[in-house]
Design a protein that fits this description.
This protein is α/β, with parallel strands linked by helices. Helix content is 41%, strand content 17%.
Length: 365
């Protein structure tokens, strides 16, 4: 294997990491991924590629510099993609210190490992940054020159990560860049994120497994893209002739309310929204039943409400197409996946129930 095609992905078991690993393997890369030691092993997203000869896993943790150094020294990658993070905004309010250690200092540990292993001239590094840097937005849409105004512990930690990458680029002449990722979703998105919460609820309500969905601010505006498309842009950033930072976004904005509308529409339920603020409700037009309500429990201490990316630079300089998958197509992909998931869970539960009954009656032993 030509060493110019060796990639190290932190956070390989996550949504983006799994898609990126697939993408790089298809391009002939030797791909190494890091996972954390845990009593519970979450590898569902990469189970289908674990047996491939060019895919390798290593234990490491962004909170442990020695583990990062050991993997970096052993693999000696030519491309590093730092996708590992505590990536949930709400969790960052509950665990600000942990978020800072991983999302801020963790980036420094990666950069130092590259530097101390003597890889500054042979290794390129991509840092997964975030649109949350813009936070309390100062202009719309946001591009690479828009001022940052982070509005959560997560965003503040990520801002340190962004600036320390820029510092190492200038101080040590390293090829290290940040992709300022706007919201990107997929059927592999974690179930605690609002988009999966919506698509799962649509599937469960349609199949009679859930009565109602509770959400926060339905008017929050986001620029939603498909994660599978976005990993290509990450790769293109590291193939660029010079190390630069890029906004990764679709340039199209939608509200949480719209996401709900299209998700429920795809399962055959047309929603009508009535009321405002905490009193807003999503009602099934056919039955008059309230399916969506707003709960103050899901409002954050400080909330970002208007994220909208401008991908002009990525399109012009990288030749990246941000609109391969439309918003409606993205919602459909996620809903179809969750409809199948809920149906499979229901079938599995029936099997377990039947087996328990058979055991109780002595039909099977």
């Amino acid at each position: 294997m030509d060493k110019k095609n060796v990639a190290l992905i932190t956070g390989v078991t996550g949504q983006d990491g799994s898609y990126l690993a697939e993408f790089l393997l298809d391009k002939g890369y030797e791909v190494h991924g890091t996972i954390r030691r845990s009593s519970v092993d979450f590898r569902e997203r990469i189970a289908h590629i674990e047996g491939k000869p060019n895919f390798h896993l290593h234990y490491a943790d962004l909170g442990d510099s020695m583990s990062i150094m050991q993997v970096m020294s052993k693999v000696r990658p030519t491309e590093v993609y730092n996708l590992a993070a505590q990536s949930h905004v709400q969790v960052s309010f509950d665990s600000p210190e942990f978020t800072c250690d991983v999302d801020a200092t963790g980036v420094l540990r990666i950069l130092e490992a590259i530097r101390l292993c003597g890889l500054t001239k042979t290794c390129r590094m991509y840092q997964a940054s975030t649109s949350e840097l813009y936070g309390k937005v100062e202009e719309v849409p946001q591009n690479e020159n828009t001022p940052f105004h982070p509005y959560s512990p997560y965003a503040v930690a990520k801002q340190y990560g962004f600036w320390i990458v820029k510092e190492y680029r200038e101080a040590y002449d390293m090829f290290c860049c940040s992709g300022i990722l706007f919201n990107h979703e997929s059927e592999r998105r974690g179930e605690t994120f609002v988009t999966r919460k919506i698509t799962l609820a649509a599937a469960r309500i349609k199949q009679g497994k859930q009565e109602k969905l509770f959400l926060g601010n339905l008017g929050s505006l986001r620029d939603w893209g498909y994660a599978k498309d976005y990993v290509e842009c990450m790769w293109l950033i590291l193939q660029h002739k010079t190390p630069e930072d890029f906004v990764i976004a679709t340039g199209v904005q939608h509200s949480v309310r719209e996401f709900c509308y299209y998700a429920f529409k795809h399962v055959g339920i047309e929603l009508e929204f009535v009321g405002e603020g905490l009193d807003e409700k999503g009602i099934d037009k056919a039955t008059g039943k309230v399916l969506i309500e707003v709960s103050p429990d899901f409002f954050r201490p400080t909330d970002v409400v208007n994220l909208w990316g401008d991908p002009t630079k990525a399109k012009a300089e990288l030749g990246w197409d941000p609109n391969k998958t439309s918003f409606e197509q993205l919602v459909k992909i996620m809903v179809d996946s969750d409809m199948a998931k809920v149906a499979a869970e229901d079938a599995g539960q029936r099997v377990r129930t039947n087996l328990a009954e058979y055991l109780e009656k002595g039909i099977v032993k």
